[in-house]
Amino acid sequence: MLSPPPSPTTTTARINQKKKMPMMRQAFKSLTVALAVPLSLTMIIIFTFGSGPKYRALQKPFWFPRLWLIHVASLGSSFLMGMSAWLVWAEGGFHRQPDALPLYIAQVSLSLIWDPLVLKIGASHVGLLFCVVHFGTLVACYQKFRPVNPIAGAFVKPCLLIKSSEFKKNMLDRFFEAHQLWKIKRVLRNGKLTLLCLVLTVVVIRSNLGAGKFGTPQEDFNEIRDHFYSSRRAEPRRVLEEAQTATTTTTASGGGDTASENSYATFDITKILVDEGEDEKPDPNKPYSLGPKISDWDEQRADWLGKNPSFPNFIGPNKPRVLLVTGSSPKPCENPVGDHYLLKAIKNKIDYCRLHGIEIFYNMALLDAEMAGFWAKLPLIRKLLLFHPEIEFLWWMDSDAMFTDMAFEVPWERYKDHNFVLHGWNEMVYDQKNWIGLNTGSFLLRNCQWSLDILDAWAPMGPKGKVRDEAGKILTRELKDRPVFEADDQSAMVYILATQRDKWGEKVYLESAYYLHGYWGILVDRYEEMIENYHPGLGDHRWPLVTHFVGCKPCGKFGDYPVERCLKQMDRAFNFGDNQILQIYGFTHKSLASRRVKRTRNETSNPLEVKDELGLLHPAFKAVKVSSS
Fold it and tell me: Which residues lie below 8 Å from residue 510, measured CB to CB, with a gap of 6+?
């Protein structure tokens, strides 16, 4: 028998609020450090070397910057670069862009060297070289920071202006003697006249001879801009090219910003996420209900099955027809990688269902606005039971749960006398009334009248607002160790079973012999050990059927655990299950942390003679549809 998890496996919004405060304090501390370090170093350099006697004694024009202005600009540049670096760090940019941190450190060092080098020592020519290198590091920082956080890139621009337009241009002039300065000014005046003549010549030629292949000035500008835009974004990737003559012509005539309009990175997704109108508001005087009361569902379903023999509820001996149901929000995830991990999770579920002859339903619609959050599954489950009478068992699984034993076939025969199968422990639910005595992230529910009745008993605590808040207070008071937060579906089920065992307990099976739900915190660090010592399928040392990442919330803004640990372990869990699929075809991931794969066997001219290690290619447990004849 599996031991209960050592820590809670259900989290809520109120717990999140309490955990946001330490995160905010940590963010404030990191911002303080990011700004204080470069500003302090800059101020120390100014007070130590910034008196600038050589600079004051230098004969210079009136438009040269004053010493105090140079110091203020240095402090401003340090502040902006510190803020920019903090934004990049907060987005994880120093991990995604390994060159960004060395470039930032280099530009800080170069900014500190300039004062003692030029103002104290008077090494103007060496200072010019450092200015050029410093400008280059700022440009490199801009190129690295901007893809990570556009605001961080915007903060670098004033630093470029400060260091190049004001400092470096003026310092370049003063590095020469007076007669050299006069010669340079004369060359610049002549250059301006030459440039003006060149522009006028081009205009006259274009007006008389036509634009030729270059098109209009707007087209020239678009061509140049698009060239630099594409080269800046160039990286190894697959590119799909299309001929878009009509689109190009329309864009050129309309003068639109093609590069910006075609960029997914800069597009504001909220422009297309339109919520039309408000949700229907229920009558507050009526008790909540999932739908009209049904009392004869077993009779209705038996009659339907008799009239539709081509849709049997059992598709093999002791093999019920099963529908696995999961889903996610209709909106995109609130973080950049959330949808990627949802895709991994559904791919994982599809693999398991394909191997075991299970149908799958993925939901992205909120069927009842009153039952948002934890409770959204209840209206969906009831609807699917009623509209799919051919389904014998509905298997609900949260979107953040993954199969990690592809060879495990649920022991359906064990549940022939039960209607509701959850991962849990009898003593924790019935004796201790512990709020984590069971888990509702992965459970089996038979399609029958009993199930409709328990859904009706389960739902009244779910409507958001006052009802859910008041129910949460009752659950916290009645259940062991439950924190104070609104009612959740798991605590509500523990409460129902503990207080109404005589009514419901006989048909409920609390499974603890295998991981119908496996809390990730006690499993993920042991995957390598499991690969060496355990085995898939049945037995005392089996792999966990399901690894459930409760509390990670990969689709939200904040989770209850460190993001890096959650995402790394979700990758490992996915690869653990994916390796069992890939081995069929002679591949495996290079490691549980790697997305890359390697061969595990050589190709053969007799592929049908190759046997996969786990027997998943044509498994004996895969359902074969029973003939209706």
Answer: 422, 423, 424, 425, 426, 429, 437, 438
CA–CA separation, 195 vs 199, rounded Å? Answer: 6
* Bridge partners of residue 588, in order along the sequence: 598
Q: Can you say whether the dihedral through the CA atoms of 295, 301, 302, 307 is positive or negative?
A: positive
Task: Report whether 595 contacts 589 (CB < 8 A).
Answer: yes
Let me know: does 548 contact 439? Beta carbons within 8 Å: yes
The Cα–Cα gap between 124 and 248 comes to 51
CA–CA dist 72, 56 (Å, integer): 17
Instruction: Count the helix, strand and coil residues of the chain and give each as a percent rounded to the nearest 5.
Output: 55, 10, 35
> Which of 29, 27, 24, 46 lies closest to 115 in space, CA to CA?
46
**Strands 401-403 and 546-548: what pairing?**
antiparallel
C-alpha dist (Å) from residue 174 to 6, 124, 171:
71, 8, 5
Q: For residue 32, what is the enclosing H or E element?
A: helix 13-49
In sequence order, the 6+-apart residues with CB closer than 8 A to the CB of 164 are 135
Quote the CA–CA distance of 485 and 480 in Å, as a whole number: 14
Rounded distance between C-alpha atoms, residue 579 and residue 404, angstroms: 10
Nearest-angstrom CA–CA distance, 392 and 387: 12
Read off the pLDDT of residues 453-490 as tens digits, 9 standing for 90 and up.
Answer: 999 999 999 999 999 999 999 999 999 999 999 999 99
Share of the chain above pLDDT 90, in %: 44
State the pLDDT at residue 243.
44
Question: How far is 129 from 377, CA to CA, in rounded Å?
Answer: 66
Q: What is the pLDDT of residues 120-154, one digit of tens each?
A: 666 666 666 767 787 788 888 888 888 888 888 88
Band (pLDDT 50/70/90 cuts) for residue 513 is very high
pLDDT, tens digit, 9 for 90 and up, residues 307-338: 999 999 999 888 999 999 999 998 999 998 99
Give the model confidence (pLDDT) of 342-399 as tens digits.
Answer: 999 999 999 999 999 999 999 999 999 889 888 999 999 999 999 999 999 999 999 9
- Report d(CA 458, CA 374) in Å as an integer: 12
pLDDT mean over 270-291: 75
Decide if 340 contacts 553 (C-beta within 8 A).
no
- In 3D space, the residue among 162, 60, 53 whose CA is nearest the CA of residue 116 turns out to be 53
Write down the pLDDT at residue 35: 83
Q: How many whole angstroms separate alpha carbon 394 and alpha carbon 448?
A: 11
Full DSSP string of 99-155: THHHHHHHHHHHHHHHIIIIIIS--HHHHHHHHHHHHHHHHHHHHHHHHH-HHHHHH
**CA dist., res. 30 & res. 50, Å (int):** 29
The Cα–Cα gap between 136 and 142 comes to 10
Backbone angles phi, psi at 625, to 5 degrees: -60, 130
Q: Which of 160, 136, 159, 156 shows the shortest CA–CA distance to 147?
A: 156
3-state secondary structure (DSSP) of residue 208: helix
Fill in the DSSP letter of residue 427: I
- Show the domains of the chain with their CATH numbers: 13-175 (no CATH), 300-609 (3.90.550.10)
Rg, Å, the chain Cα set:
34
Tell me which residue of 118, 11, 63 sits closest to 489, measured CA to CA. Answer: 11
Give me the residue label for tokens 């005046």.
189
